[in-house]
Amino acid sequence: MKAEKKRVGIKAQIRAERERGRRVATAIFLAIVLASAALSAYFGYTILNPSTPLNSIEPSLQFKPDNPDPHLKAAIVDQLSLTFPNQSFIQTAANTLKQARYTVDYYSGEKVKVEFYRNLPVGDYGLIILRAHSTAAELEGKEFVETPVSFFTSEDYSQTKYVQEQLTDQLAIGSYSMPQPPYYFGITPKFVTTSMKGTFQNTIVIMMGCEGLSNNKMAEAFVGKGAKAYVSWDGSVSSSHTDQATTQLLKHLVTEGQTISQAVENTAREVGPDEVYNSILKYYPLASGNYAIQG
C-alpha cells in the first residue's frame, strides 16, 4: 500500500508539473503575441506619423552676423510665404536681428508642417516670429463660431495621419476658403501643451497671423510651455499691416531695448489698427510687460 501510494503521488506530481508547464508556455505565448501586436502598432504608427527632430530640418536660409552671440538665436517661421510672400520684410527683419548679434534661422512655408511645430521648442530660440495664417473660428453649419486659436501648417490634411492627435483635439482642419478645400492641418493649444517636445526658455513669441489674441488659449499654452511673452492681434489682420507692425516691433524690442509693454504700445501708436479689420496689437501675459530683451 505504501508503495502504491508513492507511485500515485509521483504520477500526480508529474501531471501537476506538466500542467504548470502548459500554463507557463501559454502565458509566454500570449506575452509574445501581445508584445508583437504592440510593436506592430507602434511601428505602424511611426511609419504613418514619422517624427523628425527640428535639428534635422534644415532652415531654408540662415542669417548670421559677423560677430554672433552664441546665446542669441531667432527663428522666422514663414508659413505665409506660400500665399503672401514678402521678401522685403524677411530681409528687413533678419537685418534688424543680425545687427543685434542674433543668428536667424528662416523656415519657408513648405517646411512648416506638424512635426516642425512638434519640435519647435528644442530649437532653443529666444525669439520666434510666426508669420503664419491662423484663426479662432470654425464653421458650424452656416455660421462661424469662436474656437481656441489654431495655426495653419502647410501639410495637407489626412484622416489617417496623426490619428491620436486628431482624436484628442490637438489638431484642427484649416482652409483658406472654408468650407472649400484644400484642407490643411492646424495646430491647437492642446498640441502645444501635449505634443510639443521640450520647453521654451523665456522665449518671446510674435504671432503675426489673424486672431492670435482674440482669446488667450494659445498664449496660455505657449507661456505654460516656458515662453516669456506672446504678442499678437486681437482680430483679423492683413499681411501688409502685420509685416509693417512687426518691423517696427522688432526695432523697438531688439535695437532699442524697449520693454514689451513699451514696444507694443509704440508700435500700435505708429502703425495704428488694421485699416480693414480694426484689430490691434496686444501681448500676454500682462506681467511680461516690464520684460526687456537682454542683448
Give a structural overview.
There is one protein chain. The protein is α/β, with parallel strands linked by helices. It has 2 domains: 1-48; 54-290, Rossmann fold. It is 38% helix and 21% strand. It is built from 8 helices and 11 strands. It has helices at 2-48, 87-99, 114-118, 163-167, 189-194, 217-224, 239-255, 260-271, and strands spanning 61-63, 73-78, 103-108, 127-130, 134-140, 143-156, 171-174, 184-187, 204-207, 229-233, 281-284. It has a 7-stranded mixed β-sheet, with helices on both faces. A 4-stranded antiparallel β-sheet has the order 5-6-8-7. Helix 2 (87-99) links the parallel strand 2 and strand 3 (103-108). It starts with a helix and ends in an 11-residue tail after the last strand. Mean pLDDT is 86; it is low at 1-15 and 27-43.
